Amino acid sequence: MIQIRNLVKQYGRGDAAVQALRGIDLDVHSGEILMLMGPSGSGKTTLLSIMGCILGATSGSVKIDGAEIMGLPESKLPGVRLRHFGFVFQGFNLFPALTARENVEVGLHLKKVRGGAARRQAESLLEQVGLGGKINSYPADLSGGQKQRVAIARALAGDPPILLADEPTAALDHQSGTNVMELLTSLAKERDRTVVIVTHDSRVLPYAGEIVHIEDGRIRAHEIEREPEEVLQ
Amino acid sequence: MATIAWKNLFHDRTRLFVTLVGIVFALVLILVQFGLFLSFLETSSNIVANSHVDLWISAPSIPHVNGGSALAEGKRYQALSVPGVERVEKYTLMFVNWKLPTGAQEAVQVVGYPVGCGLGGPWNVTQGDLNDLRGEDTVMVDELYLSKLGVKGIGSTVEITGRRARVVGLTRGIRSFTTAPYVYTSFKNSQNYARLTEDQTIFFVVRTAPGADVANVKRALIARLKDVDVYTNEEMRRKTMYYWVLGTGAGVTTLLGAILGLIVGIVVVAQTIYAATVDHIREFGTLKAMGASNWNIYQVILMQAFLSALMGYTIAIAIGAAVAHGSQSGNVPIALPPAVAVGALLLAVVMCAGASFISIRKATQIDPAMVFKG
Predict the structure, then answer these.
(1) pLDDT given at position A228
(2) In this complex, do B3 and A106 lie within 8 Å of one another by their Cβ atoms?
(3) Do B11 and A166 touch (CB under 8 A)?
(4) How far is A89 from chain B (nearest CA, A)?
(5) Overall average pLDDT of the A159-187 stretch
(6) The pLDDT of residue B5 is above 90
(7) Average pLDDT over residues B357-363
(8) Which residues contact residue B10 at a Cβ distance below 8 angstroms, ignoring those fewer than 6 apart?
(9) Could B291 and A89 be called an inter-chain contact, meaning their C-beta atoms sit closer than 8 Å?
(10) Which of A80, A81, A166 sits opposite B290 (nearest CB)?
């Protein structure tokens, strides 16, 4: 699904240059929940951004479904993001002027789903994340956990194969964080979606299928073949 | 994208109000200034435009129709002998003094025209009859200037250049570009008011024969008459209009006002749309991260600009129409023809789209990676 080889990312040049990633090799498979962990500044968000075609790398290779994205012109990247990824952000990044349904519809409109079809799909997605009764609520009227559920519904709009989540529980209390993680886990399992989560939050570790620890731009440890449900039990 | 544009616009009503105030202010300023300019164009040359004259014969090198000087009557017969000339009449337009009931003097422009032949007379007569001007010492004035001239209405007796004059009719909307109102009378009366001798006139106004080519007749008149200038009606109209509107700076000032309105409008709208874009920059970043193209972002910003323009225009045109309507009874009318109303709509859209340009640059330069920064 995602194949990363010898990925290097350098910010700045000369004496001011900072090596954010120093040769990352990583494979992310379909239906997997992978967590990127590490201290602040370790490079995990940079790695997530490059995976999501939001940030360019300095060198190396990133393949999505076997297609190389390194070297693609800037103008092609929005299309790649649209086809392959759904994003969940730490700060939710909902549109405050839009209702929950309209927020989800934005994701569908970008994928050319319009009118009644967009409305029905948005309502269905909100039902799936447990917000069927909040479709006409504005973000300001929702709790943090509910906002993140709207964001997850929006990320699922158009059924992207990969969900990339940046600290999805960081702004949530324990219960809301647990609910969000259970939702992401069940979605990955039921819909056979790949979920990559950047997190500091050790509470979410039980949900991980695979954990990659990053420090100073390098992978320090890679725990694989975990079974989230077993861990939970 | 239209939903985001619409809802973002109405989400922050204070900002929307400020944006609309900026657009309305700019558009009303433009409409009023441009309306004044159009009105100046019309007023400065209305007496020529409504004269039904084909050709004007004047003393050489006059600056405008209000600046003629005396001609000898003898040239009339020379002009009448030119092929294609049907009629040549004497016509006066001169500044004279009008004595107010208080004893003070007011400058007026006496228009002496050949009553009954359809050349150079007043229009929009609301009271009285043009034939009444055949009587001795009779005049018509415009309703707009009754108070200025100290006239109560038809029958009032006044004094022009020390000579009695009786008001026998009123017109509506014959404005003077200068502070001196037009006073219509017969040519013969005007000779007395303007203190011309029996054989003097200021202009000869010419009607060409049916089917005659005015340009050819003009050339023939120039060839035949010495020490005169000959103008077609349009040439005289333009000459007069350019002198008063452009030569005096009055028109340039109003045009500059309109341009100033446009600049103020663009700056105010640009500032408010830019501020709105900066406020929503994270949302644009989110959109880009989600896969929105730059075109999607343009759509949101341009749609906001277009909606702002439409709302601002609706308010501005209502205010402009009210101001224009109210100004018709005053000395300085503001013209608001349909073409200007349509032009203002296009201007509003262009102004708002232009004002969005900086915002579009800002929004499309967003690094979508910003969405991952807290």
Answers:
(1) 54
(2) yes
(3) no
(4) 7
(5) 84
(6) no
(7) 79
(8) A97, B16
(9) no
(10) A81
Q: Please state, in angstroms and rounded to a whole number, the distance separating the CA atoms of residues B310 and B307.
A: 5
Task: State which of B4-13, B54-63, B270-279 shows the largest mean pLDDT.
Answer: B54-63
The larger pLDDT score, comparing residue A205 to residue B93, is at B93
CA atoms within 13 A on the CB side of A60: 22
pLDDT over 50 (residue A56): yes
Closest listed residue to residue B206, CA positions, set B309, B90, B107: B90
Residues of B in contact with A36 (CB under 8 A): none
B4, B292, B293 member nearest A98 (Cβ): B4
Give SS3 for A174.
helix
Of A36, A39, A38, A40, the C-alpha closest to A49 is A36
CB B316 within 8 A of CB B27: yes
Number of domains in chain A: 1
CB pair distance less than 8 Å for B290 and A89: no
Residues B290, A184, A225: CA angle, nearest 5 degrees: 115
Among the partner residues A80, A89, A107, nearest to B371 by beta-carbon distance = A89
CB-nearest partner of B372 from A45, A102, A110? A45
CB contact (8 A) between residue A106 and residue B4 = yes
Which residues of chain B form beta strands (DSSP E)? 55-58, 71-72, 85-99, 105-113, 125-127, 138-142, 157-160, 163-171, 182-186, 200-201, 203-208, 229-232
Whole-number Å distance between alpha carbons of B344 and B336:
10
> Cα(B152)–Cα(B87) distance, rounded to whole angstroms?
37
Rounded-to-integer distance, Cα B306 and Cα A66, Å:
43
CATH for A85? 3.40.50.300
Report yes or no: B318 and B31 within 8 Å, Cβ to Cβ.
no
| Closest alpha carbon to A198 in A229, A167, A158 | A167
Count of residues for chain A?
233
Angle at A49 between CA A43 and CA A51, to 5 degrees: 100
What residues make up the domain containing A227? 2-232
The residue type at B270: A
Q: Residue ranges per domain, chain B?
A: 2-44+250-372, 60-227
Q: Taking CB atoms and an 8 Å limit, are B291 and A78 in contact across chains?
A: yes
Question: Of the candidates A189, A188, A209, A200, which has an alpha carbon nearest to the alpha carbon of residue A38?
Answer: A200
> For residue B48, what are its two tokens?
């020529």
Instruction: Number of A to B CB contacts under 8 A, please give it.
Output: 72
Distance (Å, rounded) from C-alpha B273 to C-alpha B304?
8
Please state, as a whole number, how many other Cβ atoms lie within 10 Å of the Cβ of residue B133.
24
Q: Tell me how far apart the alpha carbons of residues B266 and B253 are, in angstroms, rounded to a whole number.
A: 20
pLDDT band of residue B368 (cuts 50, 70, 90) is confident
Residues 288-317 of B with CB under 8 A from A: 288-293, 296
Contact yes or no for B313/B22 (Cβ under 8 A)? no
In this prediction the ipTM stands at 0.87
